[in-house]
């Protein structure tokens, strides 16, 4: 085996090649990290939002979109009464009739962005158990409560959506009463209105959905209720299944992210291969000389791989530093909500594996070509 110092010394024989290898590998690893963090963040926020204990009653035929659903006002009380075994903290049945509406909102300074508006009563906290008011208070008529990530959708500072500030829906202004969190869910980029206020503004006399939280009851109990009450024209769907379907809706976006990353990475890889072919081609006589003094081709191949790994892992480290500063904690808005990119252990391992693969498999073709000529031919090469 050749000493590791030989590989280290060879790295600095051509500084421009070293910079190109480090930069190319950093770009590839950074793209892979970004793609993995984006897809994992998108999937994770939708998975976390849906609860297996919650069942959503929507209008028949509207199972794909709650916003388009229409449910009679009587469905809330009817379900709370007819379905036994629902969660009842403090003796209050966990059945929340809600209005969901996508519309643009305007904040001070004229910033306007579309957001998901949710008209609720206080019973919403009984079914959305991850929601916790962290500042201010629950909204009363004429007030709204905003998710803690809402300010990122508008691209403003958090203080611009602090309690006491105003937010406008059309020509009507509402005072922000509080801020809530629901860690890891799309709820954190919603705006919660008093249900009657939102019904008046949207001119609705129906609900979008009724959320039920199960205790001893099962999904089949709720499904039977929808079959018994044909007059209400309801359909039941598990909340986790609903968000699972939404996740599949965004699958083409995730696929396009990976395709884009793969195309850019392929360009960087082919450029790196050309550089390595040129660099190793000029070292054929050097490799032949080392063979003539007793080093095997396997030892030389391992040394070339070591040399390449040192460069690509340096690029990988650089990619992690860039990702930590520019990607970790970055919030990405979607039509449904906002999710945060995080450098999880799985994503870090994916980036490290990419760097190792670049340094190992990307080096083998030019290295094998460099070592392929017979010893007499290689010693005569220029």
User: Which outline best applies?
Assistant: elongated
How many domains?
A: 2
Question: What portion of residues belong to β-strands?
Answer: 15-25%
- On the 0-100 scale, what is the average pLDDT? 85
Number of helices: 14
Give a short account of the largest sheet. Answer: 6 strands, mixed, barrel
Q: Main sheet: which strands, in order across?
A: 2-3-8-5-7-6
Tell me how many strands there are: 12
| Structural class estimated from helices and strands | alpha+beta
Radius of gyration: 29 Å
Helix residue percentage: 40-55%
What is the N-to-C order of secondary-structure elements (H for helix, E for strand)?
HHEHEEHEEHEEEHEHEHHHHEEHHH
* Beginning-to-end CA distance, first to last residue: 26 Å
Summary keywords:
382 residues, alpha+beta, 2 domains, six-stranded mixed beta barrel, two-stranded antiparallel sheet, 19% strand, elongated
Kindly summarize this structure in a few lines.
The protein has helices at residues 4-11, 15-49, 74-82, 124-127, 150-154, 195-201, 219-228, 239-249, 251-281, 284-292, 297-326, 345-361, 364-371, 375-380, and strands spanning 54-59, 95-107, 112-120, 132-136, 143-147, 166-169, 172-181, 190-194, 209-213, 234-238, 331-333, 338-340. Helix 1 crosses helix 11 (297-326) and helix 2 packs antiparallel against helix 9. With 382 residues, it is an alpha+beta fold.
Could you please describe the fold and organization of this structure?
This protein is of the alpha+beta class and 382 residues long. The chain has two domains: 175 residues, no CATH class; 172 residues, no CATH class. The protein contains 14 helices and twelve strands. It has a six-stranded mixed β-barrel. Strand 6 and strand 7 form a beta hairpin. The mean pLDDT is 85.
């Amino acid at each position: 085996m050749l000493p590791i110092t030989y590989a280290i010394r060879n790295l600095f024989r051509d500084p421009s090649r070293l910079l190109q290898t480090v930069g190319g590998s950093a770009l590839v690893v950074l793209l892979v990290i970004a793609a993995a963090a984006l897809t994992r963040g998108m999937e994770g926020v939708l998975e976390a939002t849906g609860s297996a204990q919650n069942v959503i009653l929507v209008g028949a035929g509207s199972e794909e979109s709650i916003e388009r659903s229409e449910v009679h006002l009587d469905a809330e009380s009817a379900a709370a009464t007819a379905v036994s075994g629902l969660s009842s903290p403090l003796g209050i049945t966990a059945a929340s009739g809600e209005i969901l509406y996508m519309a643009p909102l305007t904040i001070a300074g004229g910033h306007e962005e579309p957001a998901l508006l949710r008209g609720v009563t206080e019973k919403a906290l009984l079914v959305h158990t991850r929601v916790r008011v962290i500042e201010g208070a629950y909204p009363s008529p004429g007030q709204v409560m905003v998710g803690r990530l809402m300010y990122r959708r508008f691209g403003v500072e958090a203080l611009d959506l602090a309690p006491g500030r105003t937010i406008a829906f059309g020509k009507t202004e509402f005072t922000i009463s509080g801020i809530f969190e629901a860690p890891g869910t799309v709820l954190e980029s919603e705006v919660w209105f008093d249900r009657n206020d939102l019904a008046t503004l949207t001119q609705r006399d129906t609900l979008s959905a009724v959320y039920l939280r199960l205790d001893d009851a099962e999904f089949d109990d709720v499904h039977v209720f929808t079959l018994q009450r044909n007059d209400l024209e309801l359909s039941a769907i598990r909340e986790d299944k609903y968000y699972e379907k939404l996740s599949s809706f965004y699958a083409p976006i995730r696929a396009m992210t990976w395709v884009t990353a793969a195309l850019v990475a392929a360009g960087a890889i082919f450029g790196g291969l050309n550089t390595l072919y040129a660099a190793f081609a000029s070292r054929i006589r050097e490799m032949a000389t080392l063979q003539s003094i007793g080093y095997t081709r396997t030892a030389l191949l391992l040394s070339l791989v070591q040399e390449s790994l040192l460069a690509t892992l340096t690029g990988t480290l650089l990619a992690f530093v860039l990702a930590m500063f520019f990607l970790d904690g970055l919030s990405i808005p979607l039509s449904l909500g906002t999710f945060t990119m995080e450098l999880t252990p799985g994503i870090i391992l994916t980036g490290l594996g990419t760097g190792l693969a670049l340094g190992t498999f990307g080096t083998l073709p030019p290295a094998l070509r460099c070592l392929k000529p017979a010893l007499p031919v290689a010693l005569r090469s220029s």
